[in-house]
Predict the structure.
Amino acid sequence: MNTTTTRLNALRGGQPPVNHNARTLVGLSVNPGCARRALLDACGADKGTVARQAGHPWQFGQSRFALARGNAFEQQVKEYGGARLLALLRESLDLPVEQVAYIPLKSVGDSTGREQRYRQTCRALVGAARGGPDPGTLYDHPMLRLNVGGNDVYLEPDLIAFKIGDRFYIVEIKSFPVIDRQANGAQVAAATRQASIYVIALQDLFATNGLDPELVATSVFLVTPKDFGNTPIATLVDARKQISMLNRQLARMDRIDILLDLLPSGLTFDLAVDTTGVPTRPAANLAADLRRIPARYRPECMAHCELAGLCRDEARQNASLDVYGQGVVDIFGGVDTTHTALALAEGRQPSDDQAGVARTLRHAERLRAALAEGAA
């Protein structure tokens, strides 16, 4: 066991590492500059339990109704051996009519173990890539694997489609609608990031088995309901930008020892569980250790990170402009807090990089004062 692994284990304390998934990696990509999240993910700490014990339980995430709708739509798209889905993909991929196969990979016999499913997925996809006798067309719920900061993360795409003699495509099925050929931009971006993680994992699978990662397309298919019904529509989305961003973040996770060298001595996320597994560490003590690691809070963290409540509370206490979002932060370049912004508006001498913002703030303050005087 190397030094980095030993130090990460010490950070986590006596708890077993949590199993990361695609949502974990999507969260990393949403806010790649956050050292706090990077360290907790790298050491495998259970961020949800840590946040609850620190007094800031995460109260966001997808509702059970949305999950049920998503599962129902996926089943509808895949029924009859994926016949409807195959018709959609033929329109975009120009699949030959004779190339039809539907290969379920959700279990291996009676086993649903991740490692067994991963090995079965490897056999099926590597065989197809090498031109085996049964190359297949649709691979339902394959199991992929990716090493993240020294830990193996198992990932399960909705589907992988294969075009003979060309490339494998990740297919992600989502229940948000495309109305008049337009979809919610944030939902499309999140779905594309998730699919991009699967692209990287499949590229890694091929590279590990001596195959060209270029066999995996860097465009992904999003299958969503059309308009206000449940008729599915397939959209091909270029994911190269998201793939590049995620690869940079994964490389950063592999260099986590640089962050470890900056930690104060004695810092730990250990929950001090009792004999029944119940955390006993005082909330204030745990929160204090968490706050010793720099965070980079953004409002979008609330949808993706279990620690977001703690980080938002910290940002509010520090009067940080981060609580208002990246757009506001960009406008107030050189100003970090509302206290500084108000002081500049009221006449404080600005630094060189604050001069432009100070002029704007003082003009806004004069307008506010004039309006207040007129209203009086």
Residues 64-93 form the longest helix (30 residues). The two ends are 72 Å apart (CA to CA). The chain has a mean pLDDT of 84. The chain has 14 helices and eight strands.
